[in-house]
């Protein structure tokens, strides 16, 4: 028997990749989570822009009794949506947690993998070999740095989403500069500087005169309650993250 193939004219189904951000949940205390979300994102209303999100429960599995605790997924989803996040998937939970998550409308996302930022220096030192068989890259070129050439007064905030931030004038006390990449301030930095805002641990902060109220890289921060070392206070300096015996910490070094 010979059958005539019919071509669908109204739709097609194909495989696709979709960018996600991940929330690594380390506690089932949603009240504490709400406080920390407010502390980090409460004054940055446009930090997220309807970003699809996967909730990763893997950290709970190493937290003793927290691994077996129930999670109010509907309340968690509501909290995340208030920050313009769109939870769509869950992974890493125990069977009871995964069942509860699916009842709340989340889909299993065990195949979602976290991306580890690759240092720019490493990629520059080891360029990929070019061959005639390589297909041209269709990705959009990276955004250039956001450049600010006017002083930032107290209460002003600048966020360089998905790129570096370059400031050519003073960042006064009470002002805030935020970037997903590096932050360069070619003037006194007296306000708050938050680099690697979306978890890029390779991000750094550079300042011609370091006098910051707050310094943060990938969620690790230091406030003015802990004074800056005298060798960098008021001098050209850089701030970066390094691994230590007690976890990641901020390290400040003077620049000549």
UniProtKB/TrEMBL annotation:
Residues 119-139 are annotated as: Disordered. Residues 147-241 form the Septum formation inhibitor MinC C-terminal domain. Cell division inhibitor that blocks the formation of polar Z ring septums. Rapidly oscillates between the poles of the cell to destabilize FtsZ filaments that have formed before they mature into polar Z rings. Prevents FtsZ polymerization. It comes from Polaromonas naphthalenivorans (strain CJ2). Belongs to the MinC family. InterPro entries: CAP/MinC_C (IPR016098), MinC (IPR013033), MinC_C_sf (IPR036145), MinC_N (IPR007874), Septum_form_inhib_MinC_C (IPR005526). NCBIfam families: minC (TIGR01222). Pfam families: MinC_C (PF03775), MinC_N (PF05209). This is Probable septum site-determining protein MinC. The lineage of its organism: Bacteria, Pseudomonadati, Pseudomonadota, Betaproteobacteria, Burkholderiales. It comes from the Bacteria. Interacts with MinD and FtsZ. GO terms for biological process: cell morphogenesis; division septum assembly; regulation of cell division; regulation of cell septum assembly. Keywords: Cell cycle, Cell division, Septation. Residues 11-87 form the Septum formation inhibitor MinC N-terminal domain.
């Amino acid at each position: 028997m010979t059958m005539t193939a019919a071509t669908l004219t109204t739709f097609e189904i194909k495989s696709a990749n979709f960018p996600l951000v991940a929330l690594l949940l380390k506690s089932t205390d949603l009240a504490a989570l709400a406080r920390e979300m407010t502390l980090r994102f409460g004054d940055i209303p446009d930090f997220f822009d309807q970003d699809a999100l996967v909730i990763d429960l893997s950290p709970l599995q190493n937290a003793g009794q927290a691994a077996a605790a129930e999670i109010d997924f509907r309340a968690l989803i509501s909290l995340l949506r208030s920050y313009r996040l769109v939870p769509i998937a869950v992974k890493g939970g125990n069977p009871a947690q995964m069942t509860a998550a699916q009842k709340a409308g989340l889909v299993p996302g065990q195949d979602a993998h976290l991306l580890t930022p690759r240092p720019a220096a490493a990629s520059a030192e080891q360029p990929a070999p070019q061959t005639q068989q390589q297909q041209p890259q269709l990705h959009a070129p990276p955004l250039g740095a956001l450049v600010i050439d006017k002083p930032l007064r107290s209460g002003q905030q600048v966020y360089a989403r998905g790129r570096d931030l370059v400031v050519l004038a003073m960042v006064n006390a009470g002002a805030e500069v935020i970037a997903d990449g590096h932050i360069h301030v070619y003037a006194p930095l007296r306000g708050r500087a938050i680099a690697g805002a979306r978890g890029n641990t390779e991000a750094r902060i550079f300042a011609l005169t370091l006098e910051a109220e707050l310094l943060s890289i990938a969620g690790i921060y230091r406030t003015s309650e802990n004074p800056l070392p005298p060798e960098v206070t008021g001098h050209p300096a850089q701030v970066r993250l390094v691994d230590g015996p007690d976890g990641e910490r901020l390290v400040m070094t003077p620049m000549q």
